[in-house]
User: Fold Aminoglycoside phosphotransferase domain-containing protein from Mastigocoleus testarum BC008.
Amino acid sequence: MSELLPLQRLLQVEFEGKWRADLATITGTLSNRQISMLVDQLTWEELGQGIRGAFFAEKSVGVVFGLELLSGERVILKLFHPSQSQEQLAAAHRCLNIVVRSGFPAPPTRSQIFKTEDGITGVFYTFMDGAMRNPHEPIVRQELAQVLAELTGILPHENPTELPLAPTRESKLWSNSHRSFLKLDKDPEARWIDQIARRAQSIIQAKNLPLIPAHLDWGVKNCRFHENNVCVVYDWDSLFAASEAEMVGRAAVQFTAQWEIPTPLTPSLAETRAFIDEYETARGHCFCRKEWVVISASADYSLAQNARLEFASGKPPRDGFLALLQNWESDMLLKTNTE
Assistant:
């Protein structure tokens, strides 16, 4: 939504029913009016002025508000999920600041990370925008792969130990769902999905590869374009401690996912392989056999994770991850590597 509305009104429009309950996992018992008052208070405390209105509000893991200040400047306010610790967020934003200083297209912070009296953690960012592009266009896919490789070149020596571990490295099979109404409880009908993910997780944990700060929600949904170039990358609290191979395998099967324009949600096998090839070209050397094993397993896990969420929704899309996984063989990407 681009129309400027009072934030209280926008909350009423965007969050009803189960979506309002999902928002409450971050804002607690606060009413829409109280949330609006809190946001205005935060802009005064952190930025020295109030808000004229809001132009979007979205909830995924965290909740994000697009705000126009009284000066006319537009900013982003992100409130984080309680499961994200202060240490993890501080580590992610330390990496973000390094990335911004390097000239990489990422939004600078406009405040320090703060914590309200109600225990809600958040931060303000500069608003940066651009166009959504069709990820199935080869030039868009290539740009996404190249920019990810560029990011890897900026952060290879940053210590990732304070970042959360990648889901593939956790002792439990699934991280908590980003939606309170999508439950990943044991289900006999989903056991086959769980088995694929558990096998992939065990393969990755058995391989000793160095960990880096890795953006694990990489794809067109978190990027905007100016012509054929990425002009901004979002969602920096999606930095995890993972190997480069894990990051690339995950990105290669999810870079097409977005819900704004009518294009297929998932990539073809050829597009997935092309993304990896283009990443290798941008990084300047090829992955070794051990890395390919991890890339393939990470792709399998990512497909299974997204398929499990679609299964939990009860209404999986026809072109979604569940449909793709049903026609996907374990180690399919590894089989495409002819080294």
